[in-house]
Amino acid sequence: MFTSDGKPSDDDPREHGPRLGDERTTLVEALRRGRLTLELKCAGLDAEAMARRCVEPSTMSLLGLVRHLAEMERATFRVMMAGQDAPRLYCSATDRDGDFDGALADPQLVAQAWEAWRAEVAFATRFVTEAPSLDITADDPLNQHGSGGGSMSLREVLVGMIEEYSRHMGHVDLLRERIDGRLGQ
Question: pLDDT tens-digit profile of 25-39?
Fold first, then answer.
């Protein structure tokens, strides 16, 4: 949310979630706020601004981050936790940075990226809601999710995704400020 004084505004949708919840509620709410922050900080930008690489020589852009986070949501919840055989969205063995490299200033690519991200978030939300407990586990033999090469609980996965969004929101702040000078909460 963008404010002139840097303080939270009354209409900030991140400020009205559950408080004093149990462990699952707390983790889910923290992840919801991270996801919502991404949407808020990208709001109102056209394809050119979304694809702008503002910190050369980095290939990072807001569009690249949306694509990257869609890829992370998919790999974590759909592939690892649910065990689905789903192909990567943007990256491949020959282009490990396809999420960023393919982030071009094309309105259709921007729309597709948001559609993919929202689909993966919806899948993850349903998966977590339907999970019998945070103690369910999945195997991460290649340590692609920070397990050390072993099993991960849903609890650890949620904390990892919260960290992923938190890490990238700093990037989003810097990119957005460079694009149009807007500072976000």
Answer: 999 999 999 999 999
Long-range contacts of 85-91 (CB under 8 A, 24+ apart): 89/116
Q: Which amino acid is at 124?
A: A
Rounded to whole angstroms, the Cα distance separating 116 from 89 reads 8
Judged on CB neighbours under 10 Å (0-12, 13-18, 19+), 150 is exposed
Question: 119-140, pLDDT tens digit by residue?
Answer: 999 999 999 999 999 999 999 8
Q: What is the 3-state secondary structure (H, E, C) of the chain?
A: CECCCCCCCCCCHHHCCCCCCCHHHHHHHHHHHHHHHHHHHHCCCCHHHHHCCCCCCCCCCHHHHHHHHHHHHHHHHHHHHCCCCCCCCCCCCCCCCHHHHCCCCCHHHHHHHHHHHHHHHHHHHHHHHHCCCCCCEEECCCCCCCCCCCEEEHHHHHHHHHHHHHHHHHHHHHHHHHHHCCCEC
- C-beta of residue 3 within 8 angstroms of C-beta of residue 137: no
CB neighbourhood size of 126 (10 A): 12
Asked whether the beta carbons of 34 and 166 are under 8 A apart, the reply is: yes
- 138, β-bridge pairs: 152
Question: Is residue 184 predicted with pLDDT exceeding 90?
Answer: no
